[in-house]
Write a structure and sequence with these properties.
Distance between the termini: 79 Å
Order of helices and strands: EEEEEEEEEE
Oligomer: single chain
Shape: rod-shaped
Structural class: mainly beta
Radius of gyration: 22 Å
Strand order of the largest sheet: 1-2
Largest sheet: 2 strands, antiparallel
Length: 135
């Protein structure tokens, strides 16, 4: 009989081999005594012998040790759309990870032409008036 190791469980007090052990939710399977929390951007529902699973579609998680795919959210500068992260459009930004929409730049401000995925209102610059010159 051997103990399963940290962050691992079994249905008996001691397992006869590693094969009788499973990892706790939010942790990735490692052979031997130790299993690490799933890093940010991954998850594991637990009670299995799998490593942490990468969030799909460039999504991330808010914290480490996530236990389900539902914890996968859009990173800063992106919005969640149909199971994937899509960059915030020109003239918008998003500072935090989450499922919220991107924020619009203040009136009279926008992001530079062709720039998407901005993460701060500081990325919004004064828009050039149509046909005019910025002074």
């Amino acid at each position: 009989r051997i103990p399963c190791g940290r962050n691992k469980v079994t249905t008996t007090a001691y397992a006869r081999s590693d094969r009788e052990c499973t990892v706790r939710p939010g942790y990735g399977w490692e052979p031997g005594d130790y299993s690490e929390p799933c890093p940010v951007g991954t998850y594991n529902p637990g009670y299995n012998t799998r490593r942490c699973t990468l969030c799909p579609g460039e999504l991330t998680t808010e914290n480490e040790a996530s236990t389900s795919q539902e914890a996968c959210i859009a990173p800063p500068g992106s919005v969640y759309l149909r199971g994937r992260a899509v960059f915030c459009a020109r003239g918008t930004y998003k500072a935090d990870a989450g499922t919220d929409d991107c924020d619009r730049c203040p009136d009279g401000f926008t992001t530079a032409w062709g720039e998407v995925g901005k993460t701060s209102v500081d990325d919004c610059k004064c828009a050039r008036p149509r046909g005019g010159v910025v002074r």
